[in-house]
Amino acid sequence: MVVKPIPSSIETGFALPPISEFEKAITPKTKAILICNPSNPTGYLYNREELEILKQIVLKHDLFLFADEVYREFCYDGREYVSVMHLDQLDQNVVLMDSISKRYSACGARIGALVSKNKEVMAAALKFAQARLSPPTFGQIAAEAAIDTPQEYFEEVKKEYVARRDYVVETLNKMDGVYCPKPSGAFYCMAQLPVDDADKFCQWLLESFEFNHQTVMLAPATGFYSKPESGKHQVRIAYVLKLESLKNAMDCLREALKVYPGRMETETNILKTSA
Prior knowledge:
- The protein is α/β, with parallel strands linked by helices.
- It has nine helices and seven strands, in the order H-E-H-E-E-H-E-H-H-H-E-H-E-E-H-H.
- It has helices spanning 19-25, 48-61, 100-103, 119-130, 137-146, 151-174, 198-208, 243-259, 268-274; strands spanning 32-36, 64-68, 94-99, 112-115, 188-192, 219-220, 234-238.
- Helix 6 runs parallel beside helix 8 (243-259).
């Protein structure tokens, strides 16, 4: 299997790339398009117009559309959640992937689902499933119980995530040379930093820096890109900590950027003024 990436950009907030970019990558051997909506690592939420564009590409080339929608409960700012299962004319082309791990904060439970109206796809998936060991018993029991979680739980969780997101994104964009687009879903954001190399910076934070006897751990964005040189100045931040802890983390990051030996003035300032 060959995976061909269609890069999105921090300058556009990681919006869906132009349809022409998909057309360039499609060949007679192409079988499917894979998306994550809302996205990990960017927090971007595809709107209906963007999904309709993908729908037209899928129908034109008779492809499958695989969609990882495990963060679908976490959409903010009144933005509409549109599932690929909501798209007309795609019943035989759509495969949705789901998991309890994010919805119920059950990381490690490893209980998920594959959903499709295509009977051939589901028959093939069942054969593979029967060839593997079953999910852990405790995970199955917990997943069954979690289904009864009331909607009020999700509303409270969303409010908390919005507060955390707003604080982190606003604080990041106030830092000199930093740019962070505002995500509309999941609980991640991507930030561009004025550093020579995000991998080196993240390692330096853990090995050589502290502020008030604390430091902060970030995920270098290079691991989320297909090319090593992409995302070299970017990091992913998960705003899953309590607000007080996030404030400490942002204080550490602000002070770290002031003294990091590899700090550099880059296009991040241009990004901030043009966003």
